[in-house]
Sequence to fold (94 residues):
Amino acid sequence: MSQGGRVVVPKIYREKLGIKEGDEVIWTEIDGQVVLTSRLRQIQRAQELCAQLFARQPERSLVDELIAERRAEAAQEDIECAEFSAKFAKKFET
Fold:
C-alpha cells in the first residue's frame, strides 16, 4: 500500500476481473476479508440473482407490477387533488 492508501492491483488480477485503468471497482468486506470486484461484475451478479428469483415465478411481471403501482398512486393523487379543489372552492363560495 502506498502513501494515501493507494493499492496497486497486480496485472494478473486486473486481467481476470476485466478491470482497465479508469474502471470503477467495488471493495467489500466479507468475514474479515476484503473482496475486490468490478462494477460491471456486480451488476451482472445482481441481474443473475433477479433472473433466478423470477425464474421461480414465471407468471410474475415486474413491469406489470410497477405499472399497476403507478396507476394506483396516480388515482390516489387524483382523489387528493379533487378533495383539495373542493375545499378550496368552498372557501370562495361564502
Notes: The mean pLDDT is 89.
